[in-house]
Structures are given as structure tokens and as C-alpha cells.
């Protein structure tokens, strides 16, 4: 058709859409190639003042290459903006395809990166807001001063990245000494990137800014709020703990106000969750206690049937059997204690009921782990084949470690171990500025310190004590297997 009537390619339909734009949308490389090679005056118009290159960005690098190589119209397409002021580079930056971004950058002058849409956003703002770190890096490499651009609200690309919770993009500015000045830049609302990271519930961004960026945490926005004040608005418990622990670890402070006017963080959701979970955990604890009690009455190796020791355990002198008795007793006692704590905590309905709930969780975990260890000890006590109990050891230990890793990941704040330890270290300060911050954190966020301490205790107990317990039981089981083999 274009060979016979090439003028048709310059016409548009009633929606102001050209054949070239429709060919791009249909993903027909052959149609696009036919139009661009045979129709020099073809139209590239599309809806909302877009051109064919806007659409080609989402169709692949080959389509983009064909349009950019289209002479003489190709390079000009890359600089045209649609009705909202967005250029094809804006579109490509939002999609995150680095090859397409590089292709467009090679066809336009570096100043094209400065182009802003109707909201004042440059392509770098768009890439940062979407978290496309490689695209943002390519844009800054093509035009280094683009990092200084601000949108209509006065925000830099770091503000955009912090609002989206994209820590990798924020680290681009942290790694470059020449960009450290924009880390503390305030937008028209007085918010720094740290303010926006806290408001977006992005503790990883806040940690990067505080730990490596060394930003100021005492800056107040136009409403007189510091980043620590914004953390109080978090409705998620884990977000609140992560943000408060991160900010307090680096000495952040709230705005000056009378201490009797400070309101504690609303822990109503925690109380409701505790009440819903306590019944289920109590049932689990009772079941564990029942299993432990039954195991004590059905001991491995059975009982003596003759002589003066009728009714006595056959393996009572074996170290591995003693390990079984100790672990089974520990499982029984801790599960019963968990039941008592859960029932008492739910009945009391006091503000500190979460403390008994936390203690009950530790007891329940300890009883479950003890029951698993007791099972392995019983298996090792009655098995003479070393390969059997060795395989059982690695299966149980591996599954248990995997389970603990998953659980720890689910209940852990989204901050590093270094920050949590740094927070505890700062909370130990009794004098001077650290003492003031400690009192304020305890008054407004009383559950943060307890959660961090219990979390670290959980990790220490189940990543150090549990493997050590497995090793001890495994060694006794290995020795018992060798003794049984010698007797046989």
C-alpha cells in the first residue's frame, strides 16, 4: 500500500492517530520498517499529542531503533513532548529498560535530560520514583547536573526515591560526595528525604540515609515536625519499630514539647492481635504438654521385664536417654508455663499484657524445640545404625534452621543487626543527650525497646543454643550407636 500510495502514511484518522503509530502499537516491525523506509513525510502522530516513539518505548528496543534511525524525523521524535509534557525519555525511564534509555540518550543532546513534564518531573525524577537504579545512574552519567533538578514541589530525585522507598537509588547520591549536599535539601513543605522516607514507611531508606549518608535528623518541616515525630503516625507495628529504632540509634529527637502532652504510640492493634492469638497458642501449648507427658510414659527402649528392676527403663544408664528425659521434661514445663502466661495475660487485660504474651511465646518456642530434640534423642537411643540417626540429625536440624530463619525474617524489623545493637547501646546512656532521648523514646514508644531486646534474645537463643543442643544430642547418640554396634 505504501509503495502504491505513499501519501496515505501522512494522514491521520478521526482520533488524530497516524498509521505509523498504529503499526507500532500492533508490534509489526515489518509495517514500521515499510513506512519509515518508503514514506519520508509520514506522520508519527498519536493520541494526546504523543508520537510513535512514545508508543515504541513499550514495544522493545528494535522498534525504538527503527524510529530513531528514521531520517530525517527520528531524532526529533525523541525530543517531542506529549500533552502532559512527557518526552519518550520520560516514558523509557518509567519503564526501566536500560537499553532503550541508552538508545534515546544517544540520539538527543545531554540537555534533553533537563526536560520536565507538567508536574516538573524530569526523567531522573521518574526513574528514581520507580526505583530503576541503573536507569537513574545512566541519566546522571549522561547529564551530571540533572541531579540538582527540582520538581514543582521543590523535591530532588532523592526525594522521589525516598517517597517510593527505593534505597538503592538513594545510595547513588550517598556514594557520590558531590551529591551529599542534596541529602539534607528541603522541599517546599520543608521535608527532607528522611522525612519522606519515614512518611513512606521505608526503614531501609532511613537507615541508609542515617548510617552512610549521615543526614541531619533534627530538621523540622513547615509543620514543625522532625522525622521522629512522623514515625508516630505509622499504623503498622513493624514499620513503627523499624523507624523508631533506626532514628533513635542515631540520636534523632522529636520536636520540643511538654512531656505531659506527649501521647504514646497507639498499640490498640497489638492488643487486639494478642487477644486473637492467645487462644490458638494456648491450645498448641496444651497439645505440646500432652505429647511430652505421653512420651514420658512411653519411653524409648521399653522397660525391664525380669529381675529386681521390673518396670525400670532399659536405657536408664545411657547418656542419650538422660538427654531425652531432660528435653522431654523441659518441653512439658515450658508448655505448661506458656499456658499459664497466656491465660493470665488475656484475663488481666492490662496495658502490660503484651509482656506476658512475649514471655509465653519464648516458652512455647522453647517447648517446641525441646520436643523436636527429644524426638531425635529417642530415635538415636534405639537406633544402632549410625547412618540412620546421622541422616535424621541433618534432616531435623536443617528443617529447624530453615523454619527459624523464615520466622525470624517475618518478625524482624527491616533494619540491620548493626542498627538494632546501636539502638540498644544508645538506650543504655543514662546521662546527657542520650539519657534525654532514652526517656523520650521510653515514654512515647514503650514497646520498641522490649521488642528489640526480645528479638535479639530470640536470635541468640535459637541460632546459638539450639544448634549447640543438637550437637550435644548428636554426639551422645553417636556414642550410643557405637556401643550398641559393639554389643551386637
Describe this structure in words.
With 488 residues, the protein is an all-alpha fold. Helix content is 62%, strand content 0%. It has helices spanning 19-25, 29-38, 52-56, 61-68, 74-79, 88-95, 98-107, 123-130, 133-142, 157-164, 167-175, 193-199, 203-211, 227-231, 237-249, 268-297, 319-348, 353-381, 386-411, 417-427, 432-444, 446-487. It starts with 18 loop residues before the first helix and ends with a helix.
CATH class category label of the largest domain = Mainly Alpha
The structural class is mainly alpha
Strand content: under 5%
In the CATH hierarchy, the architecture of the largest domain is Alpha Horseshoe
Number of helices: 22
CATH H-tier superfamily of the largest domain:
Ankyrin repeat-containing domain
Mean of residue pLDDT? 81
Distance between the termini: 93 Å
Low-pLDDT residue intervals, each spanning 5 or more residues: none
- Overall form: elongated
CATH topology title of the largest domain: Serine Threonine Protein Phosphatase 5, Tetratricopeptide repeat
Largest sheet: none
Protein name: PGG domain-containing protein
InterPro entries: Ankyrin_rpt, Ankyrin_rpt-contain_sf, PGG_dom
Membrane topology: Multi-pass membrane protein
Keywords: ANK repeat, Membrane, Repeat, Transmembrane, Transmembrane helix
Amino acid at each position: 500500500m505504501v509503495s502504491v500510495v505513499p501519501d496515505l502514511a501522512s494522514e491521520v484518522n478521526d482520533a488524530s492517530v497516524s498509521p505509523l503509530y498504529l503499526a507500532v502499537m500492533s508490534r509489526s516491525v515489518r509495517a514500521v520498517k515499510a513506512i519509515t523506509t518508503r514514506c519520508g513525510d509520514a506522520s508519527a502522530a498519536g493520541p494526546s499529542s504523543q508520537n510513535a516513539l512514545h508508543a515504541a518505548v513499550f514495544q522493545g528496543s528494535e522498534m525504538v531503533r527503527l524510529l530513531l534511525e528514521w531520517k530525517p524525523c527520528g531524532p526529533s521524535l525523541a525530543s517531542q513532548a506529549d500533552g502532559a509534557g512527557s518526552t519518550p525519555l520520560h516514558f523509557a525511564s518509567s519503564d526501566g529498560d536500560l537499553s532503550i534509555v541508552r538508545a534515546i540518550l544517544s540520539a538527543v543532546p545531554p540537555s534533553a535530560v533537563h526536560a520536565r513534564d507538567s508536574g516538573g518531573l524530569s526523567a531522573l525524577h521518574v526513574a528514581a520514583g520507580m526505583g530503576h537504579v541503573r536507569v537513574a545512574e545512566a541519566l546522571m552519567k549522561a547529564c551530571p547536573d540533572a541531579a540538582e533538578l527540582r520538581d514543582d514541589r521543590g523535591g530532588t530525585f532523592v526525594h522521589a526515591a525516598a517517597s517510593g522507598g527505593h534505597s538503592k537509588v538513594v545510595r547513588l547520591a550517598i556514594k557520590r560526595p558531590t551529591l551529599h549536599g542534596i541529602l539534607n535539601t528541603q522541599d517546599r513543605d520543608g521535608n527532607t528525604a528522611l522525612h519522606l522516607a519515614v512518611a513512606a514507611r521505608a526503614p531501609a531508606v532511613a537507615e541508609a540515609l542515617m548510617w552512610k549518608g549521615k543526614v541531619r535528623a533534627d530538621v523540622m518541616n513547615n509543620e514543625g515536625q522532625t522525622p521522629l515525630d512522623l514515625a508516630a503516625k505509622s499504623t503498622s507495628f513493624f514499620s513503627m519499630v523499624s523507624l523508631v529504632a533506626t532514628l533513635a540509634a542515631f540520636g534523632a529527637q522529636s520536636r520540643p514539647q511538654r512531656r505531659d502532652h506527649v501521647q504514646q504510640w497507639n498499640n490498640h492493634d497489638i492488643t487486639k492481635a494478642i487477644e486473637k492469638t492467645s487462644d490458638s497458642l494456648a491450645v498448641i501449648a496444651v497439645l505440646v504438654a500432652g505429647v511430652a507427658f505421653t512420651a514420658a510414659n512411653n519411653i524409648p527402649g521399653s522397660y525391664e521385664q525380669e529381675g529386681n528392676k521390673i518396670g525400670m527403663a532399659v536405657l536408664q544408664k545411657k547418656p542419650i536417654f538422660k538427654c531425652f528425659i531432660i528435653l522431654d521434661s523441659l518441653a512439658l514445663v515450658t508448655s505448661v508455663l506458656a499456658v499459664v502466661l497466656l491465660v493470665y495475660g488475656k484475663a488481666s487485660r492490662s496495658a502490660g499484657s503484651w509482656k506476658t504474651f512475649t514471655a509465653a511465646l519464648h516458652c512455647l518456642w522453647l517447648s517446641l524445640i525441646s520436643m523436636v530434640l527429644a524426638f531425635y534423642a529417642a530415635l538415636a537411643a534405639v537406633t544402632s545404625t549410625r547412618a540412620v540417626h546421622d541422616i535424621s540429625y541433618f534432616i531435623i536440624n536443617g528443617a529447624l534452621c530453615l523454619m527459624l530463619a523464615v520466622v525470624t525474617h517475618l518478625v524482624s524489623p527491616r533494619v540491620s543487626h548493626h542498627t538494632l545493637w546501636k539502638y540498644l547501646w544508645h538506650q543504655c546512656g543514662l546521662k546527657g543527650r542520650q539519657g534525654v532521648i532514652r526517656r523520650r523514646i521510653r515514654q512515647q514508644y514503650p514497646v520498641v525497646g522490649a521488642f528489640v531486646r526480645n528479638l535479639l534474645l530470640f536470635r541468640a537463643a535459637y541460632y546459638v543454643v539450639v544448634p549447640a543442643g543438637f550437637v550435644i544430642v548428636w554426639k551422645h547418640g553417636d556414642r550410643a550407636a557405637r556401643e550398641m554396634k559393639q554389643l551386637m
